[in-house]
């Protein structure tokens, strides 16, 4: 049993950097291992970042904002900031396909960055008034008499409680959605895109806000048969802040914090693997104190120092019960480019791309993940849903394009800069190449046999001269393509 | 159960299959296909309308019948600016049958002219009032219920079509194709491979073109790596292994279908271009598969396909009968695309072998909200194809204000004495499985669809897999 004070092994360090960041190059890894850090020390280091907004220019169209986020991920020294921003982008999924406003989308991204490891209560209160969200889920179209239920439903179903608790019992009733929708009437964006409760406007009393009590949770949440009146502290602006406080006070049928459990579960699934047991979720929740402090950093740290997180680093052959996770497309693209030292450039028409290849955005779209345009308010489906023949082919194409990028400069793939070309034994070449990709301990014995068969033309070439350009271009580039296409590299 | 194609091939030897490779003259190329699996030489295609289609404005009461249907409709949906009410005058060209329960005259949304043409040919079954018990108003939850064929949280995670495929096909076969970038929930299962490809043309394995002569070795290594993953004791690796293997094999068998179709079906290929609709282009991909099978392309055997489209979540700007309304544009795309696809199949001589089911995750609220409608419950499903017995099936949901639930939705009922009794989605599925896909009733109940337990007036406790739209 390990804990925050356990000294990280090389394999654990690699795994932590892979999951809390975009992987470590062999050089970076060696540096970290040499320091003999404990789990807690390295996680504290990763969490020490100073959140900064996304750097954009006023003129940026959506594609440019997207490229700026990609550039930030490709070059960042604080990768956990990016990973947490991705998590929140999926959690508070907002699609520009509907919002159609790059400035608002960039603004939301900056909010997620600034709050990425902050206080979850505060984050929710700010999401309530986030312009892109207000447009996406119709808060700006919510009016008296016909309250629009869109935001109210998703606030409970997706952002906080979830449809049901750990036992499968419902967390709320349809009536609760209606009452919360009434609380959100009266909110609009002013001409500077700031959320305002239209207290002074001409049509305020006629059209916008719902007056009177709005009682929710008479049957759910552990508030008793009287429920909670959202307007108890006054009507108007104060109500939508109070909605959040009520959500966070909701308890499930087992008397546990509903939101605490759900966010902890979701975070564990993001950083480690799917379907943690209720016992594990409760253990993480208790250890982090998240349901009291709502401190996001605390729950992140609790997960990243826990044995259950490091269990997902297990090498093949897998023991029964081993869990792995499918890399998100964005993870696949960003970590591969970082590990291979390839630096995409912005091109006039396509945007950020590497030589002779489609834009990174286009590759990602084919893999099933277009940032700023999640498929719906549910965000992306994870794990097995990333895998289909179409999305796998997109990964394989990207891998091929990188391995075949035989151009000069940082847009090209130059294995000679990543490993020694004096290696001749196929076994040693495979070790070096898989080490570059952080796969050194993730290939099975049969994987190795097939890859060595490839390298040696089925045993015909007992040694390879990598200094020979043709051999290198053919076999070493080919080996990297296969490694990037391998099942092992799709998992982490 | 009828012999599966897999066991048929085992029994008769692969030679029987490869003898089909020779191109057949068009006309009726399918007669020669001797496959004895449950689906035989038929096709089943699903079209998913993402977002929740407004059933009340898809099949519309024109008059009151023996009840107050039109009056209830007029009370719920307003005319004038922002109104979504469609007047009887606007429905004269799309009139269909009458509602079996109330006798009111029904009409399709005026945008559904293409569907109406197929209806007049007797090829469209309008199955009214489809839903399930304990209906969810969440897009995801309700979509999953329809995909898995089970009320919320009662499903196994596999799709209802997936369980049919798993019961009839093996791991290396590709009996299903989703013409989108991910496997559709209805098809999900881990027993056999389902191909997902938005465009068949780009389905090609990406080898390094500078070293073509190295591709054979790469292919061997790739199949070795993915074959190894198939054997892993880690479910996600196993799934990855099966998917990767099937993907490589599919690129080899399906990649030629695009060119084959473009050359062999130039007139129809052009007609889809001229139609210029997203759903039409997606359906053209399905037509390419069907044509490839007709031409005997080896290793192309998909009989079950899925096509999807979106935009149906019409909370606002839904529109009524005017042609620039959101719902009008969506339904016009549906009707016209489907009509062209049907004509294409008829021209290939396979219209009688085609069954298309059009579904959505839910209907929409009866009462209009602002310029649109919120999430609802029951809605009409379309079943279209040459083998379909056209007409109106099932009953229109009760849209009288007094009959609506507290949240303003039509109520699910299985009470035999209720004139507005709902059609359970599983009776639609079961009818297709039994009468089109050739699965015996006991096998359907044993492998694919599980009866609900509980109050028989509000739960699906007795199946009816003989709805009559397929015989």
Present the secondary structure layout.
The complex is a heterodimer of chains A (492) and B (471).
Chain A: H1 10-20, H2 26-34, H3 39-47, H4 62-75, H5 79-91, H6 96-99, H7 102-114, H8 120-128, H9 131-136, H10 150-159, H11 174-183, E1 187-189, E2 195-197, H12 204-207, E3 215-216, E4 228-229, H13 237-249, H14 258-271, H15 278-288, H16 290-293, H17 296-304, H18 307-310, H19 329-340, E5 345-347, E6 351-353, H20 360-367, H21 389-403, H22 426-436, H23 445-455, H24 469-485, H25 487-490
Antiparallel strand pairs in A: 1-2, 3-4, 5-6
Helix pairs in contact in A: 4-19, 8-13, 10-11, 14-15, 14-17, 15-17, 20-21, 21-24, 22-24
Chain B: H1 5-12, H2 14-18, E1 43-49, E2 59-61, H3 69-76, E3 95-98, E4 105-108, H4 113-120, E5 124-131, H5 139-148, H6 160-168, E6 176-178, E7 194-196, H7 215-230, H8 235-254, H9 257-264, H10 266-275, H11 278-294, E8 304-309, H12 326-347, E9 354-360, E10 379-384, E11 391-393, E12 423-424, H13 425-435, H14 441-448
Parallel strand pairs in B: 1-8, 1-9, 5-11, 5-12, 6-7, 6-8
Antiparallel strand pairs in B: 2-4, 3-4, 5-10, 9-10
